[in-house]
Amino acid sequence: MEMIIGGAFQGKSTYAEKYYPEIRWSLGSSVSEDELYRAEGILGFHEFIRREMRAGKDVKGLAGKLIEKNPDVILVSDEVGYGVVPVDSFDRAYREAVGRICTELASFSTRVTRVVCGIGTVIKHA
Amino acid sequence: MLTLVTGGSGSGKSAFAEDRILSFGEAKRIYIATMYPFDEESHKRIARHRAMRAGKGFETKECYTGLANIMLPEDCTVLLECMSNLTANEMFQQDGAHENTVEAIIRGVRHLCAQARHTVIVTNEIFSEAASYEGDTVLYQNYLGEINCRIAEMAEEVVEVVYGIPVYHKKKMTDHKGGAEK
């Protein structure tokens, strides 16, 4: 598993598509759970987490399931935890869930790249 | 030695900070808890952190305001979690330091460093987002930002934890362990 993370609009997807030109990408904003477990790469993975939570689903086991069923997937995800604690309780829960899930996935990943202004810095290479 | 641990929400700062304290070896370990339990969510959060610390030999001391008055045993290691709560407490609680929050907290941090062998302070990055705030919230960002900068200046180590991965912004040259080198 590999991850490409960073703030919104930092050129993560462009970076990912350039770095992995052969990968077929699915979108976190539209992919189904089944497709998620078969996908080669996911752009906007955080969108999937948000959709699941909006649908009232428990996302606690999501990282574990993804590691078990799709250990070679490449995930591109926004970092969403660098702001003031949101007033809205859903936003708070979502922000924390993205953090916890991505922390678990990063611990499993062989490579984690952080993209700022389109420039990737590898922060983990196991 | 002073270590400042920062990062976003849910990014594994606490786990990293606890490991850092354990890496200092046997010592009297003090955990300074700053979250005031005012609702169910904070109770849950506190319970989660207690479970994480269980079995690691920490003695917990609550400190909601007045860090400079805390008494510590000699030659201990201290984990303070977290600066974002302490700052809010000092600003908004009745017995807080209010407009003198920054100075009160920096005095408190110096007081910890003078007593403890190693001090690890967990803080928070709350400064990068699209939403703009006004009034108390901006003042809170302003105070916490200034506190983070002042502590980072005093610290030997400044570590940003990104999804569990330590990214060092400042570190002693003799101690190279993981993370992006700066």
Q: Please give the CATH class of chain A.
A: Alpha Beta
Percentage of residues in DSSP E strands of chain B: 15-25%
Count of DSSP strands of chain B: 7
CATH class assignment of chain B? Alpha Beta
CATH architecture of chain A: 3-Layer(aba) Sandwich
Question: What is the H-and-E element order of chain A?
Answer: EHEHEHHEHEE
Could you characterize the architecture of this molecule?
The complex is a heterodimer of chains A (126) and B (182). Chain A is α/β, with parallel strands linked by helices. Chain A has one domain: Rossmann fold. Helices cover 41% and strands 23% of the residues of chain A. Chain A is built from 5 helices and 6 strands, in the order βαβαβααβαββ. Chain A has helices spanning 12-19, 33-38, 45-54, 62-69, 89-108; strands spanning 2-6, 25-27, 41-43, 74-78, 111-116, 119-125. Chain A has a 6-stranded mixed beta sheet with strand order 2-3-4-1-5-6, with helices on both faces. In chain A, helix 3 packs across helix 5 and helix 4 (62-69) runs parallel beside helix 5 (89-108). The longest helix of chain A has 20 residues, at 89-108. Chain B has one domain: Rossmann fold (3-Layer(aba) Sandwich), CATH 3.40.50. Chain B is built from 5 helices and 7 strands; from the N terminus they run βαβαββααβαββ. Chain B has a 7-stranded mixed beta sheet with strand order 3-2-4-5-1-6-7, sandwiched between helices. In chain B, a hairpin with a 2-residue loop joins strand 6 (157-162) and strand 7 (165-170). In chain B, helix 4 (101-115) runs parallel beside helix 5. Chain B is globular and about 45 Å long. Chain B starts with a strand and ends in a 12-residue tail after the last strand. Mean pLDDT of chain B is 92; it is low at 178-182. Chain A binds chain B through residues 3, 5, 7-8, 79-85, 89, 92, 95-100, 102-103, 105-107, 112, 114, 121-124, and chain B through 7-12, 41, 125-131, 133, 137, 140-141, 162-165, 167, 179-180.
